[in-house]
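Recap from last week: sequence in, structure out.
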Amino acid sequence: MKIALDAFGGDNAPSEIVKGAVEAADRDTYIYLVGDKTKLKEELSQYETNPFIEIVHAPDSISMEEDPARAVRHKKESSIVVAAKLVGEKKADALVSAGSTGAQLAASIFHIGRIKGVKRPAICIYYPTRKGMKLITDAGANPMANAEQIEQFAVMGAIYAKNVLGIASPRIGLINNGTEDKKGTDTTKEAFERLKNNESLNFIGNIEGKDIPLGETDVMVCDGFTGNIVLKLSEGLSKTIFSMIKESLLSKWYRKIGAMLIKGGLMDLRKQLDSAEYGGAPLLGVDGISMICHGSSNAKAIVSAVKATRRAVEAGYIEEMREKLRG
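Predicted structure tokens:
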């Protein structure tokens, strides 16, 4: 399997990206490390030679501050554009990047292409719950999604859940401000009716924000504005709670003794909630695998993302999406 890894995308690029590539590349995973050749050679010189890594020169990069679509059009030699082209030209099986999400979305649409019939690609994130890992889509690609697009997000999410997570009939829930059928905006009301009448979906109805971490629903759908708020709130809440617990346990000497006794359990819980453990978020709807990583990804997160990308490629869900979504 060949993966195009954007070496200059993310807050910790290129050092942590290169480190992750060195750890992830093996006889089953060939990595095209895309970025400035001179700088990448310098980074790789710190490690033993890995025959499963190949540098693909891309002298330019796109920052988080740049307008994504404009940058992708004009910076044709940027690392994300060159990496996306490798997938579009079938030289690589998948794209992985921790850079600008907007740039990756634009590069994927321009150079990998959308699956015929797909209105808008959607970001599908893994979300840890009381009942294991679940999915939320869209998580930020389409802030103004309409009801038809939300229905399509549900179809794509269900296909991904079935093929990658192995859930035979994924339960679909619509994130809303109440569980009643008639709750929500005009868009969510119309989306509810569309999802309810789509016989290919196992739609269980509306779910509220408090239901999200309980894990009763396998795929939770919404517009990208709502999904991104849920994602960022959850990330911040997780960090805040662990910080408060740490401060409380270390505030008294006798609490420190108790902290030692529960340290293992807390570490296990923190691991379950750590985004670096479960890799990137697939961009559903493009005609190939495009995996979006957190901007702060370290080497560990890159290794996890490469593993998640391998599973996605091996699952072969793109074929089913082509079949079910073609217009």
